[in-house]
Each structure stands twice: as C-alpha cells, then as structure tokens.
Amino acid sequence: MIKKDIKLKNGLNHVFICPVCNKKNCRAKLNSEKIPVIVEFTCQTCGKYKIKQTMLKGADMVPIIRKWVSEHWKGKEHLLSGYIRLINDTSTRKVELLSPDDIKKILENPLIPKDDAIERKIEYLLSALKRISGHFGKPIQSPDPKNDISLAFAQDTAEFAAILNVLKEQNLIETKASFSNEYWVMGDIIVTYEGWTYNPREEESNQGFIATWFDPEMTESIDAIEKAIINCGYTAMCIRDKDYPETIADKALGELRKSKFVIVNLTNLRPAVLHEAGFAEALGLPIIYVCNMSNKKYQTKVKKEAFYNKRYKIIFYSSAKELQKYLEDVISARVT
Ligand SMILES: [Zn+2]
Prior knowledge:
The chain is of the alpha/beta class.
C-alpha cells in the first residue's frame, strides 16, 4: 500500500463504511473522542473530514451523512472523495461536512475537475506521486486502486488504471508495475525527469505571427507589421527563411500554435497565407486581416473574393507607414 500522507490515530475502535466514497473496501474510522461536538472521520481513500455530531451515537450518523452526500453528489461521490483527499494531502485544513449545504457548496469548488477533464486528472495524479516521492529519483510504491483512486479523482479502477497508463506511456513515470481493470501488479514507481518538469500549461504566449506572401515587393509591409507588433509590446514571428521549403509549412503551423494573435496579409491572396489564416481561425486566435490596395491588381483580386470583404473586417492600406499606424491601434485594442 502506498505510503500515505494521512495517518490513522490509535484508539479508534469503530469501523464504518465511509459515507462519502461508500466503497466496499473503503472503511471509515470514527474518532469518538471528539463527541459530542465534531466527529472526525478518517478514511483510507478520502482522508480526514469532519462531521457535526447530530446523534447520540456516532455510528447512527453514517446513514444520515450518506443520505446528504447521495442527495447532492449522486454519481459524483468519487469527486468529493478526491477533493477531501486533496485538501488532506496539501494543507492542514480538514474538510467539514457539517450540513447538507456544506456538501452542496463543495460541488462548485474550482479545484474539482469535471469528469471528462482527463488532463486535469492526470496532473492531479502526477502531482500526488511527486508529493509522495518527495524528491527527484526517490522510488515509491505504486498506488493501489482500493485506496488511491482519489488521488486522480478517478471514477473507478478502470479509469484509475487508464490514467496511470497514460503517465507510463508518456514517460512521466517509470515502473514495472502494471495496471488494468482485471489485474493490478504493484511495484516501485519513479517519477521521471519528464514527470518532474511536466508543465502542460505553456506559459502565456507573447508572439504575434505574420502570415504573408513572401515577395521582394512585400518587404516594406512586412517590416511595418513587425514594427507595429514590437511597438505594442509583443514579439514578431515571420518565417521569411526560404532555405527549407519542405518544412516551412510545418514550421509555420508550429509557430502559429505558439502565437497569441495573427496578422494576415491578404495581398495577392496566396494559398499558403489563406491556409495559415484558416489554421489560426481553428485555433481561435485573434486575427487581424490587412491588404495592400495601392496596386490595382491586388484590388481586383481581393474584391472578386467578396467572401473576404463580407466575412471579415479587412484593413486596407496604401503605404507601409499607414499600415503600421493602423496596426498599432488595432493590436492595442484587440489583443489583451
Ligand atoms: Zn472514503
């Protein structure tokens, strides 16, 4: 069994089915010393939590609490269990379930992941393993489904096994143990370097991407866009390097993913530019469309594509200076 952050007190003689997680193998111990004011439950899965004494005998409280919990948490008891465990393992506070209202209120706590937020469950489990390990390189025993599914807010053994297997497959942990719904082979776990440095939330991007036609006559406008982006406090990314034509599209899409906003120059309606614009749309990035109207051939081309004029607001410019000024205003107003 995994070394736990919670410790059972000696002298607890009543053993109950935990009214929160209600699992067959999960039992709660009642701290009768605290009677008559607050009763402290200690569950191997949930951790410690407090319940107000409303009956003469603690044992009689369990079905009452169970009723409160199932009224508000039906089908989500594992989330309440995970929450109580998390608070236990990361603070000195104990969760108090003193009334049905307390139990209801916890539902809205932002620490509790939605059941389909698998990424967050993965993060929670990995954080727990790091916490238990204490430092890089120190092995720990693999968690067991009887007591530890709460570390991942998992619904059942199958989900817990699946989350552990993601950690394994992504090389965030290293272990010879195996996890599945049918069998569970315990063994040591080491959180790997990738696990210790895992950061799924990339730092907020500060990059403005420039999607544009690369032609010598565009140089002035590209320079103007770069200056506008920089003057607004962002870094500009423009892939002008033509030395790697095979990979340029991949590089562009990779940089787009890392960007905070995109300037699309529709001048001459180049397919690559439209492709990047569509990709940025799909990513939900703010996009600012610009187009050079100083040249007749561009006017005809963009105007023919009425789609662009109707669907998107386009900034038409006739000089690089004008473009830079327009963009500085629009970036400041639209990108926050
Ligand atoms: Zn429990």
